[in-house]
Amino acid sequence: MGEPNPIRNERRARTRDASRAAILDSARRVAARDGARNLSLRGVAAEAGYAPAALYGYFANKDELLLALAADDLQSLSRAMRDAVASGAEGKLAAASSAALALLRDNETFAAAQGALPQEAGGSEAERLFNGRMIAALKVLADATGQPANSRDAQRDVVLVAAALTGLAMLARSGRLGALGFTPEEILARLDGRFTS
Q1: Which residues lie below 8 Å from residue 9, measured CB to CB, with a gap of 6+?
Q2: Which of 87, 108, 161, 196 is the most buried (most CB within 10 A)?
Q3: What is the rounded distance in angstroms from the CA atom of residue 73 to the CA atom of residue 111?
Q4: How far apart are CA 183 and CA 102, in angstroms?
Q5: pLDDT by residue, tens only, the chain of 197 residues
Q6: 58, 84, 100: which is the final residue of a domain?
Q7: Consecutive H or E run containing 10
Q8: Are 31 and 52 contained in the same domain?
C-alpha cells in the first residue's frame, strides 16, 4: 500500500463538499416548493439528480438533512444580525432583532428542524453543527444587548430574547400577532427596552 496522496485527498474532500452543497441547495428548492415539513430524501435526490441511496452517504436520514438546512440558516441569521448591528441605523438589539425577525418569519426550516432534534442530545455531526451555529447566533444576540454573557443570568436573558423572537416570528407569520392587535415593531421596541443595557 502506497503513501497517502494529499492532493487526491484534498480533491476528494472538495468534491464531497461540493456534492453536499448541491444536495443542500436541492433540498432548499424542494422545501420552498413543497414545504420543509414535507421534505423527503427521495424528492431531494430527484431534484439533485442523485439516486436516493446516494444521499445516505451525506445524511443518515431526513432529520439530519433538516438540521443541516437549519444550521445553514442559523449561519445566515447570525450574519444578518451582525450586519444589522454594524449598520448602526438603530439600537444594537433592535437592529439585530429586526434582522432576526425578518429571517425567522419567512423561514420554515427552523420550525421543521425543531421536530428533527432528538429528545436527548446525541452526537450526530448534523446536531453538533446545528448546536454550534445556534450558540453563535446567541452570541450575536448577547453582544447586541450590550451585556456580557458571562453569568448564568445574562445567558438566560439571551435565551429569553431568542425565544421571544422565535415566538414573535411564529405569531407574525401566522397572522396571529395582527389579530391580537400588535405589530412586530412595537413588540421589538418593548423587547429592546427590557434587555438593552
Answers
A1: none
A2: 161
A3: 12
A4: 13
A5: 567 787 877 787 787 788 889 999 999 999 989 988 888 999 999 999 999 899 988 888 999 999 999 999 999 999 999 999 998 766 889 899 999 999 998 888 887 888 888 777 767 888 889 999 999 999 999 999 887 778 898 899 999 999 999 999 989 988 999 999 999 999 988 888 888 76
A6: 58
A7: helix 6-34
A8: yes
C-alpha cell at position 49: 439528480
- Report how far residue 30's alpha carbon sits from residue 121's, in angstroms, rounded to the nearest whole number: 28
Q: Domain check: are 143 and 165 in the same one?
A: yes
- Residue span of the structural domain in which 138 resides: 61-195
At position 197, the amino acid (one-letter code) is S
| Cβ contact 85:143 at 8 Å | yes
**CB atoms closer than 10 angstroms to residue 112:** 22
**Cβ partners under 8 Å of residue 83, min gap 6:** 99
Global pTM reads: 0.83
Tally the domains of the chain: 2
Other Cβ atoms less than 10 A from the Cβ of 113: the count is 24
Closest CA to 67 of 106, 27, 97: 27
The answer on 68 and 52 residing in a single domain is no
**Residue 147: CA atoms inside 13 Å, Cβ hemisphere, count?**
19
* 126 and 169 inside one domain: yes
Residues 22 and 91 in one domain: no
